[in-house]
Amino acid sequence: MIITLNCFASLKPYTPDGGTLELAEGTTVEAVLTRLGIPQEEIRLIFVNSVHVSPDTVLKDGDRLGIFPPVGGG
Amino acid sequence: MDKILRIDVGADGGPALREEPVGDYAGIGGRALTSTIVCKEVPADCHPLGPENKLVIAPGLLSGTAAVTSGRLSVGCKSPLTGGIKEANSGGQGAQVLARLGYAAIVLEGEWNGEDLYKVTITKDGATIETANELKMKTNYQLMEKFQETYGSSGAMLSIGTAGEMRLSNSTVAVTDKEGRPTRHAGRGGVGAVMGSKGVKVILLDGAGTSMRQPVDKEAFSDANKRFNEGLKKHAVTGQGLPTYGTNVLTNVLNEAGGYPTYNFKQGNFPDADKISGETQAELEISRGGVSTHGCHRGCSIQCSGTFLDKDGNYVTKQPEYETVWAHGGNCGICDLDAIATLDYLDDDFGLDTIEMGVTIGVAMEAGLLKFGDADGAIKLVKEVGAGTPLGRILGSGAATAARAYGIEKAPVVKGQGMPAYDPRAVKGIGVTYATSPMGADHTAGYAVATNILKVGGDVDPLSSEGQAALSQNLQIATAAVDSTGMCLFIAFAVLDQPETFQALIDIINGCYGLSLTADDVVALGKSVLEKERDFNARAGFTAADDRLPRYFRREQLPPHNVVFDVPDQELDQVFQW
Ligand code: SF4
After folding, report:
1. Using an 8 Å Cβ cutoff, are B175 and B186 in contact?
2. Are B382 and B347 in contact (CB under 8 A)?
3. Is residue B259 lining ligand 1, measured as CB closer than 6 Å?
4. Do B252 and A66 touch (CB under 8 A)?
5. Where do the domains of chain A lie, and which CATH numbers do they carry?
6. What residues of chain B lie within 8 A of the CB of A10, using their CB?
7. pLDDT at B391 over 90
8. pLDDT number for residue A73
9. Average pLDDT for chain B
10. Is A74's CB within 8 Å of B449's CB?
11. CB B197: neighbour CB atoms within 10 A?
12. CA of residue B303 to ligand 1 center, whole Å
């Protein structure tokens, strides 16, 4: 299956080329983060299809995954 | 800060200045002071542009001291935009200089003769006022050129552009930054129009010969200030995120969360969001030789701002903030950072609130006056506002007025004030704040986005109505207190997450004034400010029906989550029950 993945702000360099990833069925967000080598402590927000989720969320084909470090503004 | 300067523009024989001891108003600052004075001295049923209204300008309790990030200025009055009480908060150098000059507040009052414009100058030797009709219809940057040498690098200028002079309901009081530029604004609610209704065009603050305010307990103060600063540096948002990307880092976050109001609040995603994101903006700024880490006043240790240069390396404006980039960008379907920077410059120059202006253009687009995405058309409209053409005056009177003039329902406003950059259907906590804040739709009044979306200070599901009223209540109380200290609200990210940083803030106040306040006292201060503001609004005729979002936010679903605003009215009515 293929998902879209975007890493933002200081994590931007971790975004894979083309912004997509091919994954085995049943892959969790956590497994993706490990595969990309993003340090756990730098991750604050994970969105799948616009919903904030935890790392153990299982991904589905066509999902859109967004990863952020701690950010703020206003 | 033991005196108040009163300027009666209607005195016999011309404007009269009077300095008086702070008296009954001692011990409060910033929003607590502006709201207390307005609540006590302004008849709530008066016309905002009439002689009974007053404009109160007050630095925070800690402004002018060595406390970091304490240079915020409060500007209060009865708002021409909302018809309720207003405190508009600004960065820039104004608060620091005014506090060092010893003033707890400046109050503009009385009946203007309707003709003459005035210039007020304040130095360490006192204040003077003179007629300055040569300043008629001057813009803020023109005023800067004229007066920069007078207020100099140690001073500041408070001014109204053409919008305030025309007494448009969308008009700001501009405050100069460290470079002396009029880039910071007490933006919301049309406070510039009230200054214009007193005929005061410019207030020059000369800081020469003044010194930093000294704390009562030096040792306790410096120790607390050090701990507080360490707390800001240590927190990932105030220590890294804000300095690196500025507030516009939120574009991608809100877009990713489906809560980014796009095309006049039609949908929660903007397909071109990345083109105007904070990441893209910071990259562009740096590639052109601008800076992406910069403080709006000396002593800010967060430094969320920057400078925006054009492709030839010439200054355009300060780094447009998230709210501005959204209002003129995604909300209008515009994805060109250069056009947005131009709009930001024009807003600053004419003295227009960027949120209200962008929301109004979104409404004009909805009404078919121009197409979504038409950047040149948007620039043209803002120029019409600045020049005061008949159309410009309609648009300069805010989103609610524009929607009425064009006969459309979809005006995203509460109490007549345009909604900021978070859709209340997909970020329900901020919807509660929009609905219930005495200020009208205002994100800063109780920034539930932190907890709903950014997961700072807790985690409350943005899509569920549960817990949002309580969240907004707590944040509105805390904000009313912070707004009274002169501290920038962005300290809240660190303070909400780190109890020791909150304690350090209380210790700074205690060290400064020789007090022994506790967290409970801070909460009590916040509540008392809100109670006064609510009392004023009630006397001005506001009821529970005004603490609501426009009905269509309950009716029309927002993609991609396809949600409506569904926090029950009874819960909205509980926000101020404590
Ligand atoms: S954090 Fe930003 S807005 Fe706040 S005082 Fe500093 S520069 Fe100004």
Report:
1. yes
2. yes
3. no
4. yes
5. 2-68 (3.10.20.30)
6. 240-241, 244
7. yes
8. 85
9. 97
10. yes
11. 25
12. 5
Quick one: pLDDT at residue B152? Answer: 82
| Per-residue pLDDT tens over the stretch B261-287 | 999 999 999 999 999 999 999 999 999
Chain B interface mutation, best of A50, A63, A67, highest count of B Cβ atoms under 10 Å: A50
**Residue type at position B35:** S
Q: Is the pTM of this model over 0.95?
A: yes
pLDDT at site B291: 82
Question: Residues B248-258: what's their mean pLDDT?
Answer: 96
pLDDT tens sequence across B182-241? 999 999 999 999 999 999 999 999 999 999 999 999 999 999 999 999 999 999 999 988
Cα separations in angstroms, B429 against B475, B521, B554: 10, 25, 15
Q: What is the pLDDT of residue B82?
A: 98
Cβ separation A45–B447 shorter than 8 A: no
Q: Which of B454, B459, B487 to mutate to test the interface with A (most CBs of A within 10 A)?
A: B454
Mutate to test the pocket of ligand 1, among B235, B302, B444, B483 (most ligand atoms within 8 A of CB): B302
Distance from A11 to chain B by nearest Cα, in Å?
A: 11
In angstroms, the CA B489 to CA A65 distance is 31
Its sign, for the CA torsion A5, A8, A11, A14, is positive
Probe site for chain B from A43, A44, A71 (most B CB atoms < 10 A): A71
In short, whether B247's Cβ falls inside 6 Å of ligand 1 is: no
Q: Give residue B151 CA to ligand 1 midpoint distance, Å.
A: 21
| pLDDT beyond 90 at B487 | yes
Enumerate domains of chain B plus CATH numbers. 3-205 (3.60.9.10), 224-350+414-572 (1.10.599.10)
Q: What is the pLDDT of residues B86-126, one digit of tens each?
A: 999 999 999 999 999 999 999 999 999 999 999 999 999 99
CA B267 to chain centre: 26
How many Å from the N-terminal Cα to the C-terminal Cα in chain B? 32
Pick B444's closest partner by Cβ from A10, A51, A74: A74
Structure tokens at B360: 């109004």
Query: Given strand A45-48, what is the order of strands in its sheet?
Result: A20-22, A2-7, A64-68, A45-48, A51-52
For B68-79, how does the pLDDT look when each residue is reduced to its tens digit (9 = 90+)? 999 999 999 999
Tokens 């009313």 belong to residue: B480
Q: How much distance in Å is there from the Cα of B310 to the middle of ligand 1?
A: 23
Q: How many helices (H) and strands (E) does chain B have?
A: 24, 16
Which ipTM did the prediction report? 0.96
List of residues 6+ apart from B543 with CB closer than 8 A: none
Tell me which DSSP letter residue B337 carries: H
Residues of B with CB under 8 A from a CB of A: 235-238, 240-242, 244-250, 252-253, 256-258, 268-269, 277-279, 304, 321-323, 443-444, 447, 449-450, 453-456, 461-463, 489-490, 493, 560-561
Give mean pLDDT, residues B420-431: 98
What does the block give as tokens for B489? 């609200």
Atom of ligand 1 nearest to the CA of B301: 6
Confidence of residue B153 (pLDDT cuts 50, 70, 90): confident
Distance of CA B169 to the CA centre of its chain: 15
